[in-house]
Design brief:
Layout (H helix, E strand, L loop, with lengths): L1 H23 L5 H10 L2 H29 L8 H21 L12 H29 L6
Length: 146
């Protein structure tokens, strides 16, 4: 139910951005400039990163919990997915900090565009690998005896 609520919030917020940019914007440049201005605002970016981070944490957490239940709470079976989950959540939190505009804690001599891209790719890759590993654990290894 929480995932449904978060996805609905994302869709409603994106609809509002499109409505403001394409219908209600009356400034110079027309709807195209209005759309660019709406998408480049910090509120839009932070909202999308927060919603995506919450969905990633909930989804991966549910998969790892399901593996724990299937394997009778043997943490050794899910050690790698838990480590990847921690890395993915940490990278997404750093991405949120960068997106919110407070990137002084990173103190890197890199272009923010490249850093943003690298963090996004790392978060998505670790989430994908976590999903693949937990799915393989559930499908290939013998189930716990009850």
């Amino acid at each position: 139910m929480l995932i449904f609520g978060l996805l609905t919030m994302k869709i409603i917020y994106q609809f509002e951005v499109v409505l403001r940019a394409l219908v209600l914007y009356t400034g110079l440049g027309g709807p195209v400039i209005g759309f660019i201005l709406q998408l480049s605002g910090p509120a839009y970016r932070v909202t999308m990163v927060v919603a995506t981070m919450a969905l990633q944490v909930i989804g991966d957490g549910m998969l790892i919990y399901r593996c724990l239940v299937i394997f009778s709470y043997r943490w050794s079976m899910v050690a790698l997915p838990v480590a990847l989950f921690i890395v993915s959540t940490s990278v997404t939190a750093a991405l949120l900090g960068l997106t919110a505009g407070n990137n002084t804690f990173l103190n890197l001599n890199a272009n923010d565009g490249h850093l943003y891209s690298a963090l996004t790719n790392t978060a998505l890759a670790t989430t994908l690998v976590t999903n693949i590993i937990t799915t393989e654990l559930r499908l290939t290894l013998p189930r716990a005896q009850f």
